[in-house]
Amino acid sequence: MSAAPAVRLEGGDAASGLAFMIGDLIEGNLRDFPARRRVASRTRGQVALEASDRAAAITLSFRPGEVVVAEGISPDTPVLSGEWLTMAQMCSGQISPVRALASKQLSISGMSNPMCVAAAGFVLSVPESFYEPEAVAERRRKVLIWALAATAVSGGAFGGYWALARRRSGAGGPV
Fold first, then answer.
1. Exposure b/e, 32-57, CB count within 10 A at least 16 = b
2. DSSP 94
3. Weakest-pLDDT range from 31-35, 50-54, 151-155
4. Three-state secondary structure call for residue 117
5. What average pLDDT does the segment 122-137 reach?
6. How far apart are CA 26 and CA 36, in angstroms?
7. H or E element, residue 109
8. DSSP label at residue 11
9. DSSP alpha helices (H): ranges in 6-132?
10. What is the mean pLDDT of the chain?
11. Which residues contact 81 (CB under 8 A, 6 or more apart)?
12. In angstroms, rounded to a whole number, what is the distance separating the alpha carbons of residues 96 and 128?
């Protein structure tokens, strides 16, 4: 297991509530989810998060060995912007960044580093399975059952067609 990048609040104890909330979230995600730890370790660049209805903003800087959470929006940085509640829902796993963007609850401006924006969205998000492991397992089980049933039906149909074709061609043996 690789070491998680350190999460550092540039403002220290004087950091905003948004910075503390996001810093804690990232720290927990990097500790609990190996895929998010790997992505954060490999990502380089900056992404700003703006709670547009609260005039609050932070910039996340993905650097070697650390993620820095700083107050405000750094120049020439892509900005992910939305209402405070939408940001909180995204960070708590209640809505994915992709769904929030598609539904126009979040917007992106200044896409100078789309890979960093995507990585930040992944690192910030909490998997649905974290909150509802039984529901996710049940959904996976149902999908697997349907996939197996569809495979069996299509395989049976193909086998029947093949047997009928052999019988018609005379290669099917005794009739």
1. ebeebbebbbebebbbbbbbbeeebb
2. S
3. 151-155
4. helix
5. 70
6. 9
7. strand 106-109
8. T
9. 17-32, 34-42, 84-91, 97-102, 114-124, 128-131
10. 82
11. 49, 50, 52, 106, 107, 108, 109
12. 9
Mean pLDDT calculated for residue range 154-173: 65
Residue with tokens 């963007």: 101
Residue 117 contacts residue 125 (beta carbons within 8 Å): no
Is the pLDDT reported for residue 128 higher than 70? no
The Cα–Cα gap between 63 and 43 comes to 7
Side chain identity at residue 87, one-letter code: M
8 Å CB contact between 76 and 112: yes
Q: What is the pLDDT of residues 2-14, one digit of tens each?
A: 788 999 999 999 9
53-82 pLDDT tens trace? 988 999 999 999 999 999 999 999 999 999
Return the structure tokens found at 57: 């903003």
Kindly report the CA angle at 131 between 61 and 44, in degrees rounded to 5? Answer: 15
The two tokens of residue 88 are 């909180």
Place of tokens 């405070």: 84
